[in-house]
Amino acid sequence: MSLPNDLKASTIAAQAGGVIDMPSGGVVPPVQPSTTFVRDEDYALVNPDNIYSRDNSDIVRITENVLARLENAEEALLFPSGMAAIAALFRTLPNGATVVVQSGIYWGTTKWLRDFSARRQIALHEVDASDASALEQACTTHRPALVFIETPSNPWLKSVDIARAASCAHASGGLLAVDSTAATPVLQKPLELGADIVMHSATKGINGHSDVLAGVLATAAPAAKVWTDIKADRHDAGAVIGPFEAWLLLRGMRTLPLRVERMSANALKIASWLKAHPKVTDVFYPGLASHPGHKVAARQMQGGFGCLFSFLVQGGAPEALAVVGKLKLFHRATSLGGVESLVEHRHTIEPHTGIPESLIRVSVGIEDADDLIADLSQALG
Ligand SMILES: *Cc1c(COP(=O)(O)O)cnc(C)c1O
């Protein structure tokens, strides 16, 4: 039933952690939709693992086990979305706590955190964590209970030195949590670099097919209070993923390492091509040697730099929207990490957060890179 311990990510993923459905012999685990599980004449559970599906689901456990192995974690917990995972983490903080959070990250996180912090009297300090000394300064000054970073960040693609962030969070008596969505567990392992919690929007690269909403938290220290609090919160407050979503996620994850490898190669090729284009004024991709976060990213990411990059075109919003409007292969849609390439004008979505009007964010899929370059070439004119 279970695979040996020392396997590489592609083997663990392809074999879904080694699961065989013994009753049928199937090489694919079944979906069990039942919400409740029966007891025998002596009132003993027929299967002691399963009572009620708010917290007991075989397919959820199987998927969490594969995620934990890919992340080199002791335990992983699935949530119905990435935001539900982030909310479960921050709900462990007492009222009046102090947190340091990276500025300029995924706007949904920032917006929710600002509202939550105001309601709970939490002192929220936003700092550009890609500047390691600014982060260290913030830790020393504020002594946060929790430091939350996102690397590579969305949509600026900034790199944060995870090991340094962990040291400064720990030195001030706090924990470090890392949103590693843009890297996926294949390219970056924050727990190995000292992070206490790693978070992913599994809606993105982990699922990879733009058809499941899911989130994950993982830890190397399942006995820690923060983790037992998160588990209790998920069980009691009920932010659980459904069995069909968990099954789809596991199916998508079988090809995760393969997809990430192809997407990273495509993204590097396209970002390099854009960098040399006369109508492009800048490209933000940690895989480019010219990127300010390249050295940090190269140190803490293995096997590529992911599917996400942003670039600036000459002019402003009208010029950027004209390019976006002419694209034929890239779908104009939010999100990232799917097999199909997506393009987004972030300034239209968040006009008040300082995103340049000329910025175009791209999530590169697994299509042929030359086809994608030809599309960008005709759109840039
Ligand atoms: C999408 C995203 C989230 C939120 O995840 P959902 O699954 O949409 O709730 C959080 N962080 C990052 C970096 C994301 O890209």
Description:
The protein is an alpha/beta fold and 381 residues long. Helices cover 38% and strands 15% of the residues. It has 14 helices and 12 strands. α3 packs parallel to α4, α5 runs parallel beside α6 and α10 runs parallel beside α14 (369-380). The structure holds pyridoxal-5'-phosphate.
Give short descriptive properties of this protein.
381 residues; alpha/beta; five-stranded mixed beta sheet; 14 helices; binds pyridoxal-5'-phosphate; pyridoxal phosphate
Short account of what is shown:
With 381 residues, this protein is an alpha/beta fold.
- Fraction of residues in helices? 25-40%
Number of helical regions? 14
Major sheet summary line: 7 strands, mixed
Secondary structural class: alpha/beta
Q: Spatial order of the strands in the main sheet?
A: 1-7-6-5-4-2-3
From the spread of the alpha carbons, the general shape counts as: globular
> Count the strands?
12
Strand fraction: 5-15%
| Average pLDDT rating | 97
| Elements, N to C (H/E) | HHEHEHEHEHEHEEHHHEHEHEEHEH
Cα Rg: 21 Å
What ranges have pLDDT less than 50 throughout 5 or more consecutive residues? none
* Small-molecule components bound: pyridoxal-5'-phosphate
First CA to last CA: what distance?
55 Å
